[in-house]
Amino acid sequence: MKIKKVVTLIVVFSSLVNFCNSQSREIFYYPKQTKSNKSTSPPFTIKLNDSIFIDVAPVDNFMYLEFLTNLKFFWTERIHDSIKKIPDYGLTKDIAYKLFENIPNNNLLWLNQKIPNNLMVDKTINSNVYLEHPKYSFHPLVNISKEQATLYCKWRTDAVKLFWAINTENIEERNKYPYKFVYRLPTKNELLTATQKFGYSNISIKKDEMPLFPYRTKYRSKYKKALFYKEGISEFVLDSLPFGSNWRKKNSINKLNDYTGFRCVCEVND
């Protein structure tokens, strides 16, 4: 039973990163690492400057559902503290299991991060349907609070740290990746810099189509730029009101809404 539990935990945590390497759903920009190309891009990101790597696109429904699964079954603040102490490489299943054994159920944290099912998207789609239906897997997550987005970034830091620790056997392999890094919400200036560097993309929406659309329209493994749309969603930032225009042309954030989402940046301090 212990072995099965360990395998389950590792699969769930690492699947966030493995997802970008799947043949049928390969959509994230995750270039290969080389000794001369250390930390070119942490998972799902593209380089903004020497220390900041930004998500190619906002967090989508698929990614957030994985986060909720982790919260429901084992990720807690206690786990977060334990992950800080794990080896940087050569993490075995036996060591990993000790992180998760005797951790009580965390249903309250999970429930607090769920998207309320009494909300609507575009006045026609129930928020649960939008979040969980495969048709909308790669649509940007909405009806989310800034606090929920912040916790997601914290969890994602742990997920990537575990992935690199499990999938590198020695210091030579581990040295291809940053040791000190954290996923967080971007600042307003970082998003301004990103839009200036990568520009805005165009998208054509038919009159009968839902105006809230996926940022990625093709399952490509590499992107040469971060994707921004002027009529997409506004995005949470650390230090100000949400950044950018949105398809509803609104700027209020007094309540959960269907025009504000977020993306992460990974700050590397090696």
Describe the structure in your own words.
With 270 residues, the chain is an alpha+beta fold. It has one domain (2-268). The chain contains 9 helices and 8 strands. The strands form 3 sheets. It has a 4-stranded antiparallel beta sheet with strand order 1-2-8-5. β3 (120-121) and β4 (125-126) form a beta hairpin. α1 (2-18) packs antiparallel against α2 and α1 packs across α4. The longest helix has 22 residues, at 146-167. The N and C termini lie far apart (39 Å). Residues 1-39 have low confidence and may be disordered.
Task: Jot down its keywords.
alpha+beta; four-stranded antiparallel beta sheet
Give a quick rundown of the structure.
By secondary structure, the protein is α+β, with helices and mostly antiparallel strands. The protein has one domain. The chain has 9 helices and 8 strands.
Itemize the secondary structure elements and their pairings.
Elements: H1 2-18, E1 45-47, E2 52-55, H2 61-73, H3 77-83, H4 93-100, H5 107-113, E3 120-121, E4 125-126, H6 127-132, H7 146-167, H8 171-174, E5 181-184, H9 188-198, E6 234-235, E7 260-261, E8 265-268
Parallel strand pairs: 6-7
Antiparallel strand pairs: 1-2, 2-8, 3-4, 5-8
